[in-house]
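Course assignment 3, question 2. Fill in each field.
Student: A.L.
Task: Predict the tertiary structure for the chain below.
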Amino acid sequence: LARADRGADVLVAFYAPWCGHCKAIAPVIAALAAKHSADARLVVAALDATANDVVGHAVASFPTLKLFPAGTSDGPVTYLGGERTVEALEEFLSANGHEFSAAEATRAEL
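Answer field:
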């Protein structure tokens, strides 16, 4: 998995098509991506880990959500649980360095 070179944080949901939990979180991942589609500093992706080689990134269970922060040589940060909501994922992103723009904050409050 290559890191984005344009200064974007990348959140990847590694899933398996047969996984019930993956099917349940898919609309949340899609809503997060849609909500922040104008944010060039954030990429939200879903990757079928059963159909793609995930070399160098341990995926032991499904779904596995990993944040690859821009501008750091540190490894990815794994979402270790909690709520599976757009708001919880936004908190995870913020806690790990993603800065949402003022326009996004205003839009989210509306």
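Instructor remarks: The first strand starts at residue 9 and ends at 15. The radius of gyration is 14 Å.
Grade: pending
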